[in-house]
Design goal:
The chain is mostly helical. The chain has helices at about 1-10, 15-25, 30-40, 40-50, 60-75, 85-105, 110-125, 130-160, 165-170, 175-190, 195-200, 205-215, 220-225, 225-235, 240-245. The protein has 15 helices and no strands. The radius of gyration is 21 Å and the shape is globular.
Length: about 250
């Protein structure tokens, strides 16, 4: 009976209800969790197939990874911080899928990483032999210079999209939940090659494609368009110090 109710509600895309069911599953209701996993199976397959760029079914190992990702999303979902269970699950599933693909494709890189770590450790030991105060002063000067340079480069990057810092201050979402929703959507775009390439090529968001995978209206997407674009550009940049300001927003 619960399953039929869930499926009926999903057809109407009732975000509040699906969020409440996710909370019940998180609280330990195994029946609700089982029904959620079943009802969201098409969404899980679609997300996995989208990331792998090929059809994925129950027999593929990637499907198991995606199922586990959805389960993880349900267990970590917080309606006060996350846009919706579907949007949040898309991010978590993609993160786990990418981790899995990288693990399968880059085993040999572990040796290089270990060598790099050993070299870093040796360099750190040499640094301790130098005057500590001089090093700290030099590092702080470098950080200050790098922050300034990052701000200049970020301003130029925004200008390519006809955006300015002053304008972003005015259009940034005022409410925490709206800001979190916009940030999560920006993260999906930044981590999805097709979406990001579309943005960089056309200077526009792929609104139709985004609307198909998140429970956010076209009107809301358009209202927060400038903020989302600015966040996407930041996430896919090398601006280490600027990113520190939004570190708590990144999933």
């Amino acid at each position: 009976m619960l399953l039929s109710i869930i499926q009926g509600l999903f057809k109407t895309k009732t975000k509040q209800t699906t969020n409440e069911l996710a909370q019940k599953a998180k609280a330990g209701d195994e029946e609700v969790l089982s029904d959620l996993l079943f009802a969201f199976t098409p969404f899980i397959k679609k997300t996995a197939s989208f990331i792998c760029k090929r059809p994925i079914d129950e027999h593929d190992e990637e499907f198991s990874v995606a199922i586990n990702g959805f389960h993880e999303a349900v267990m970590a979902f917080d309606p006060s911080k996350d846009a919706s269970i579907q949007t949040f699950a898309h991010l978590i599933i993609k993160r786990r899928m990418v981790d899995f693909i990288r693990k399968e494709a880059t085993r040999n890189e572990k040796v290089l990483l270990m060598q790099a770590s050993e070299e870093e450790a040796a360099t750190s030991e040499q640094h301790f032999l130098l005057d500590k105060q001089s090093i700290n002063t030099y590092i702080e000067e470098q950080r200050t210079a790098t922050r300034r340079e990052e701000l200049v480069l970020y301003r130029k990057l925004l200008a390519l999209f006809n955006l300015t810092f002053d304008e972003l201050t005015k259009v940034a979402p005022r409410h925490a939940d709206a800001r979190k929703t916009a940030f999560q959507i920006a993260q999906i775009i930044a981590e999805t090659e097709e979406f990001y390439n579309h943005l960089m090529k056309t200077k526009q968001l792929p609104l139709k494609e985004i609307e198909a995978i998140v429970e956010v209206s076209r009107k809301t997407l358009e209202r927060h368009r400038k903020y989302i674009i600015a966040v996407v550009l930041l996430l896919n940049s090398d601006f280490v110090y600027i990113k520190e300001y939004v570190k708590g927003e990144i999933i």
